[in-house]
## 1
Amino acid sequence: MPREKILYDPKGDSGLAKRVLVSDRPDGFKPASGKIGQQVLTLLSSGPKYPAEMARSLGAHHQTIYYHIARLEAAGLIARVRSEQIRGGEAKLYALASDGYAVEFPVKGEPLPTLRSSGRSRALGRFFSEFFDNGEFDGWVVVGSPLQHGAAGTQARDGHYAVQLGFALGQFVNLPEKFPVKLDTDLRAEKLLTSNLVVVGGPRNNTVAEELNPHLPFKFSQGGFWGAIVDDEGNSHASELDCLVEKIQNPWDRSKTCVVIAGLTGAGTKAAIIGVCNHADALFAKYGSGRFAALLRGVDKDGDGKVDSAEVVRRL
């Protein structure tokens, strides 16, 4: 089977790299050599798609598309990201397995500088793709103000957890020229709600999270001062380490995206951040595009009294 390697253009000035499937023989890439195979790969380069979408776009019979998809998947060039039941049948969503493919000859090669992105999570990059624009961060990370604010006059103490998120997202973008973090109070005052937003902290501490709450698939319950998370089946989750990671369209501008990473408590928010940054491959393994909702619970694996991991309880 082909192996994935990093393809880096030393003459480029963007600092971007691509993950490419590499083999020492061209035989494994035969499914990509035909006209339909190439067209399928070109379509998927713009994002995940269903076979029916590809058939319509290419004006081809569904069985023809299914045949080429099966060959491309068997060759490891494309991958199934999720399946759904639609009108009594199973619809499968496919995406590129890598950014390209190449045949590698047995030459020695040449030394290159260490790439900062060589160990990054592909799943994490896909989940936050709307926030990356040609190597620049497009949006704001929103944390609660440490001053008394909101109807309850609370003081947020979980904003520092966004540092871990900054390290994770920094693998995909250049160092921003403008400071990308805003307090919830400043974001509103500066009329920036119609932006791509990553909201850290729940409605106890973050007024932007409070306003987004009615739009979330999994919601914080207002009873008991936001004392529980209610899932899509109406079940309440009230552990202090319960938390959620959700992605929706921005209700103030539908062309933008909001990601909420928050817990019932500060420890819960820390657990959500750990889930996103440290366990992205597992958390977003089946994510293709669009809305996402996951309920997580923080775990203290080493028994030192502090949350250090997160497990998925329920996911849409």
## 2
Amino acid sequence: MRQKSGTGKAPAQQVIKDIRRATRKQYGAEEKIRIVLEGLRGEESIAALCRREGIAESLYYNWSKEFLEAGKKRLAGDTARAATSDEVKVLRKEARDLKEVVAEQALELRLFKKSMIADGGDDE
């Protein structure tokens, strides 16, 4: 019995695709920056750089665009700086202290209202 054309290839092609995806090289931020900066220097063509690094030109141009956009945002001051763990601790303590003050104020207000009701309200 013969199989239809192409049905036998599908599982094998999927296996190959999965293997390629699993073994694909992952580039860290520093490697991406190095490659983009090499491309910006212009000492060799982008095509040659990409061949040497084993990446697609479209990937290089995506990284380049991201790199330049991030730099533009940073220079414009649009990016938020990540807080250090010490700063987070200080901010959490400050938030806790403020919550306590609000709770105390709410309690005092509630007690004041109760005392006003007990006194019969306004004496004016």
## 3
Amino acid sequence: MYTLFQTDTESEARRGLLKTAHGDIQTPEYMPVGTQASVKAVAPRDLEAAGTQIILGNTYHLYLRPGMETMEEMGGLHQFMNWHQPILTDSGGFQVFSLAKLNQITHDGVWFRSHLDGAKIFLGPRESIRTQRMLGSDIMMAFDDCPPWPCTEEKVSEAVERTLRWGEASKKAFAECQCDGCFSPTIKQSLFGIVQGASFPHLRQRCAEELVKIGFDGYAIGGVSVGEPEPEMYKAVESTVPYLPKDHVRYAMGLGQPHQIVELVARGVDIFDCVLPTRAARHATCYTWEGTLNLRGAVYCRDKQPLVPGCTCYACQNFTRAYIRHLFKAGEILALVLLSLHNIHFYLDLMRQIRQALDNGRFGEFRREFKLRYKTTKD
């Protein structure tokens, strides 16, 4: 499933290939987030044109709407959204964290109050895996418990033990689905485990080592980008990676800013997902190689430059900063479409350049140059 080609001589950065039922994924790579079977403001056609290799869908949200009966009748998630490349679905476990006020954790899973209509629903390892099976994602995630930040060591330890118990139950449910005829439009699916442990290195180590004993097709680093300072996030990753097998893919969940991605690639991470490209676009924030710029600024009123000179995305090839600023000021939907497309293109181009640098044995140089050039504060 995952082939490691090479490791950087100056860091833990890796170059590899991840095989799935719907296609191969060159790594390191970024996944655009399609929470509800749609990457906000970007059509599948445009994602494909930008070079997207894989997208992410949200099990919890798709379970609620449109629901699994509809999903089965429509032929699964790929067919439903007309996306025929790889899809990874999260397990719904993150909603244990993000919807804490609407849930109740039990030994076997979580009772939720639907954020749509308040209906009471239960989601545990078995339910999550069977839902992902019906969605037909290429990569499923084990059900886990993501603790908030900050959190006491006792609470994090409880979350780790729950994650391990649910991880084992997820694998059991995954095996059962292969045998009992549970509908799936994707015959060959994979299951990834998720490492929790917050910023406690010994809990990260325990969680990683025990998940490896259970055995998964790949491993994710969870519980990061949940409000902790950036140094804590790096620490969590550094406390996890050494205990993950080198011949399996590594996925940092919910990360991150461009400079964070470069640094986490250097720490041995292979796959990323993040809502920032489209979320930032909705706030008129544009990613460039020098950092971000906000197009609402008056300085761009008559700026004839493209968003990023030299960028090959549709927005940059056809429109000026002045025009896209005008669209934002006028409240035109096209502003969101163009800037979302550009920001996703920027992230994918960043990953392409990282892969090229690794291929050429110059990732260390690329990392240093990027750090000097990219400013992390907004203008």
## 4
Amino acid sequence: MGYTMIENLNPRQAWDLLQQNTDAVLVDVRTKVEHDFVGHPLGAINIAWKEAPDWQVNSMFVAEVKKAVPDYNAPVLLLCRSGQRSLDAAKTLEDAGFRRLINIVGGFEGPLDQHNHRGNLGGWRFNGLPWEQS
């Protein structure tokens, strides 16, 4: 098996890649509640890495991603709130054989600012990229 390196792209770079590569798939690894109510990038597939109330890793995560992305060479972009869960998920997908994994740095909401608020310093929404709420 070829060596995989998880790429880190900022939200703007990730959006550009999605526009340029029709094989690329954006997986939102946040919980269903976050995906639906906080909002999500247009076209994102929600496959939770961890889910309330127990916050254990979703035992079906890899199987669900394989179902959504059967081509192990297709770019899989992973997004969470700030970029940590998506990186953990990417490492697991790397172990499962996916070859082009991209962690979206800053996630959907970005890092906390000095007032412990997200969305002011970075992330998908901060960058003005297309998103929606359910």
